[in-house]
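Quick one, T. Sequence first:
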Amino acid sequence: MRTALLFGQKPLANPAAVFLHTTARDRNTTMHDSVFSFYLRNHRVNGYTEPGLAMFYGEQLLKGLEALPPETGQKRIALAAGLLRQALLLNPFDKVLRGVVNQLANPAPASEIYTAWLGACNKVLDGTNDVFVGEALEQAEEWKRDETLLRNTALNHESLCLRHACLVKLWELGNLPYFTDAACAIASSEAGPLISGFYAFAALAAGEPALCEGLLSRALINPLTLNLKAERAASAGDTVTARSLLLRSLDALPVQTHLLLRLHELQAAPQPASLDALASDKRVSVLFYTWNKLDVTMDTLRSLLESDIGNAHIALLNNGSTAFTQDDFAAAVAGVAQGREVEVVQLPVNIGAPAARNWLWQMESSRASDYTAFLDDDVYLPKNWLRCFLQDAAEFPEATVIGPRVVNPGTIPTIQYVARFFSQTANNMIRFTNNAPLFMDMQQYTYRRPCLSVMGCCHLFNRSACESLNVPGFDVRFTPSQVDDLEHDIQVWLSGGTVLYDGRVCVVHRQDAGRAAPRTEAGWGHVWGNHMKMEMKISGESLAQVDRQVQALDDAFFRQCVHEALPELTPRTKTFFAQCGLLG
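Structure tokens:
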């Protein structure tokens, strides 16, 4: 999508002028605004909405304001302005977007912090002859296989917009050395204070505190820099300062609805210091399977054993591998386990992922468990993953399945998979929300919330709940893989269970699905074939029922977070949330 062309080349009609011409008849009309609700919900799922998408949302929200009641028109303007202001924080060099944000200053006044930052943008960038953002993004995408060219362009090109686009592409590719060079170069320029706080999030994700501090020190105060300072305070254990900064950021830009979930996490019970306090009377099984990936699987086993899993039962299934012998596999497991008991299952043929999971689930050693975790064979686990999941099971006893935030490998970790929801359903049609709404990990997904589905590379099942609800096993029709775990989460909801996302748990998934090489035609045929099987399996009525249940639970949890923060919210923040209908 070419962001620069979304509103056309002509300036957007003044929303205030349009709004003021609302007829008397419309002023007496009240209505549910489904358009507003649709884009607000999408934004709540996104965390931060990608700039091009935010431009599209804003365009749709600002259409036809003259036919709407005043209250409806005003709240649409408020949401559109918030989305566009958030988008500009991610790319101040988009001159069309900046023009629209400037136009909205009168009908929807911005905070003092945002106004000061925007004024600095105008002072530095007005009068510059830059390329359109769509052209810059297309060029950066075209050059993504030549990272040296991306770096050199980000360092030296006369177009700030193109330099920024190339730097963001280096971030997406996870190239920390080249990103560092380019980010420091732009940060030291006249435009550096406008954007270096945004770049500092990449340094935070990469675990580079000196780079993060250096970029942040050059940045003008804005909502993103406040959020970054809050996350640094939280990681240092100073939750009081972290919450204060997030509340200040929320006042500066109330459209950041995900901050309510972060605020909730910062005042929730801390993670237990040890597994013993959570699982002293609970048995856990950790199950995974592999096919032809000996070294990668041993890396996963090593990561598992280095994490805090106590005396959990471990079972590893060799799914008919042909690249090594069964003896080689058993020897490799013994070498990594170093005396730790690992149950090894050797199958003569590959039965596929769904059947492998079902096999492991039904083994006698697994059936004695209270909780069962499934892993993929290509993950790196954080030390506290099981501790967090078992805390979730205790605090959210209705959760049948619990899953993590998943990131791509690389020197700058980027988002691969977070909580997913339905975006559209009908008979023989299912569309899901994006698995990675924004690839930058800016802690916008580091919270817990109910959702439709979590990624299957590391998820925990409440076994007794699954059995009491008669949740079916993984459907072997999705063999060898693709959508089997996603469809199984839908079956959990259909059976009366629920799914919980825990973004505190960050798992590295080495498959790197978000940036994988293009699939062959046969590969895409398999993916879409399994998706069509899923669409034909579940009726539109059942899908709609699940969608209502998921949204209702997620909305209730969000309102709980709003209610908790309400005494601390500023009048500006409360006004925005009241307009959005989130205070009732």
